[in-house]
Amino acid sequence: MIKKGLDKLGILILYLISLLPFWFLYILSDISFVIIYHLVHYRRDVVQQNLRNAFPEKSEKERQDIERKYYRYLSDLMVETIKMITVSEKQMRKRVVATNSDLVFEYFEKGKSIIAVAGHYCNWEMAALNFNFVTDKRFMIVYKPLTNKTFNDFFIEIRSRFGGQPIAMKQTLRKMIEYRKELTVSVLVGDQTPVMSEVNYFTNFLNQPTAVFLGIEKIAKTIDAAVVFYDMRRVKRGYYEYTLIPLTETPKQTAEYEITVMHVQYLEKVIRREPQYWLWSHRRWKFKPEDLHR
């Protein structure tokens, strides 16, 4: 009971912070950067190890530069995520722009539903919210549930603010099949780390064998949906644009693992372009291929 009360108090504090204007939130971000990078050293060992493994060709100075830029951006990402609690539709339309939304209607005209693959890159949550403005069709956001029910319910409310329908990861295929007679758009994050019991496939990603979910490929083939990738760029502080990159509109004609490799390789291309915007503090490489045989 006490824990639930504290959780609700935390949510109230986040709500009040979200009412602050962007310019003030970025002042808080600057302060946060000093705290998490210089004082707390939040997961700096994880970030440094990930960068060493991903970019062995870069000098130590180059990796340190990426690390510092990453923490500056992580601080911005935190306040932007809080702002999503109360951000207006007008602000969302202004700050996140789709460059080729016509592609969505081209697929719909062909009778194709769409699976949009994102990575933990730039502000992927804001991009997902913005996609609600692209189409009036059913729009589903697949998420990994939090263990804390109070905060999980809170984030479901945020993700559904502009009409999106959050779907828990384990319910994804069932929901997709349920709505297969409709034209839908579904957003899935392609660089989640599977739990050990769900590790079935490794591919090369950022210079190392990486366990990946096969769910995107499986769903695309089951409902015969076109697959696109969110290519997101940060234009300036607090402003983004994204381009939908076609991967395939004939998933049933692709070879096994082909769709998975395509979206993983495209994400790597995006990360290498501007690496500071990927979630380097995430423990992405928990498993190695040899772990499957233990």
TrEMBL record:
Record's keyword annotation contains Transmembrane helix: yes
GO cellular component: plasma membrane
Tagged with keyword Iron: no
Keyword tags: Acyltransferase, Cell inner membrane, Cell membrane, Membrane, Transferase, Transmembrane, Transmembrane helix
Chief place where the protein resides: membrane
Transmembrane parts of this sequence: 12-40
Any Gene Ontology biological process: glycolipid biosynthetic process
Signal peptide: none
CDD domains found in the cross-reference section: LPLAT_LABLAT-like (cd07984)
InterPro entries found in the cross-reference section: LipA_acyltrans (IPR004960)
Compartments where located: Cell inner membrane
Record-level Gene Ontology MF annotations: acyltransferase activity
Classification via PANTHER family: LIPID A BIOSYNTHESIS LAUROYL ACYLTRANSFERASE (PTHR30606), PHOSPHATIDYLINOSITOL MANNOSIDE ACYLTRANSFERASE (PTHR30606:SF10)
Protein known as: Lauroyl acyltransferase
Species this chain originates from: Mucilaginibacter celer
